[in-house]
Amino acid sequence: MSSQIIALLIFVGIFAVATLRKVHLGVIMFAAAAGVGIWLADLEMKQVIGGFPVSILVLLVGVTYFFAIAQENGTVDRIIESAIAKVGDNAFVLPIVFFALSVGISAMGSPLAGLVLTPIGMPLAKKYGIDRMLMGLAIGCGLSAGGFAPTSLFGIVTYGTAHSVGIPLNPLLLFGVALGANLVLMIAAYAMFGGFGLLKSRASGSFSPSAAPRFAGRGPLPAHPFEREGLTRRSAEAARSSLQTLEKADAAPAVRTRMNTTQLVTVLCMLGLLTSVIVLAMCGLDPDIGILCFAFASVMTLVDPKTGKTAVAKIDWSTVLMVGGIITFVGVLQKMGAVELLGEAASRIGAPIVAALVICLIGGLVSAFASTTGMLAALVPLAIPLVASGDIAGWALIAALGVCSSIVDVSPFSTVGATLVATVEEDERPRINKLLTRWGMSMVVIGPLGLVGALVLPTMF
């Protein structure tokens, strides 16, 4: 057996062991990358370490630090409260608002941060006669779409990894693809779960934070064992914090106050970051979002040193380590020719479109049970052989692969799906669990067929 095949088997085996033993994937990947690189590939240690993605580290650290400050100083909570309070009693619009909020919050560095909305949205859905499945999918689709923003984890890993292996991918284009795909799924959810019927009947009474139903008697939100993003615990804590806010609101009417100076500066910095990225991209430049985040975070830190200091502890070092370990190992695989070996195997499949469909199916299936971020970091570089011949546009395949790996996350076997099930009444859980399983598993097939057909196939003509 050749050293390349052994290295690939070790790579796959590490994913299995890390999942079964529930250990940090990045730690084992780093150690294995060094061992495989030195003993199988005959590389020097500096060559192995040279594969560590420094640019992605800067992106992840800068983005998670910037938005950690916004969360610490209360700006994110104020934005959520303001948006929900303006919905009124329009039940038809409510899932759309939660979709938009999920997109916005998930775009702030952590895709799972949007889970803070689940203990708010699910009880509100019951109050206004909205199918909990529709509300759950609205939040889940929002998480998937927002996660591919240029400032969020899925987007950073996908386009950062693509750039590191020489595949040009515009981060705004990636976000547009993810947003479009999830909007289509939202429309399907409205059609399947009575969303359009809400236009005929509106709930009586207008909504205010103090009128929100209490979400009492629940235990901690689930920290699903299959997820490796390193974000679940913080998302659960954020959700519990929102629960406490709602329960306090039940006891006394909420008094709405204006944003303080720190929060206003934070909003201006968020708008400045968004504007900078869009303007630089339109000018044909390649904006370094990590550096921009550090620049605006510096302003926010100077305005409020206390929250700036606290936010340092919330930088997502766990994900940095995981992505760094995977990409370092993939770098070793590339140096020893294992990726080229996969390219030869892919060429034997015949039609490139079939190979593209297979890799997207693999990404969706594995991601439904394991780490979405890990799948993106691993499969994006391994997709190089499929685009090497020029028959398939690299950006199209990577965008399709990324979204296919994300839209399955509402499966109850992942953190998102498990949290959605946990935040409905006990008698509703069997139904929601069954429907989310069907939806998530159907996305394993529907996603690749739809995205490969819409993105990859047209680029072959």
Automatic annotation (TrEMBL):
InterPro entries: MatC_N. The keyword Lipid biosynthesis does not apply. The keyword DNA-binding does not apply. Residues 1-147 form the Dicarboxylate carrier MatC N-terminal domain. It comes from Paeniglutamicibacter sulfureus. Keywords: Membrane, Transmembrane, Transmembrane helix. This is Di/tricarboxylate transporter. The chain crosses the membrane at residues 26-43, 50-71, 91-117, 137-160, 172-199, 264-283, 317-337, 349-370, 382-408, 439-457.
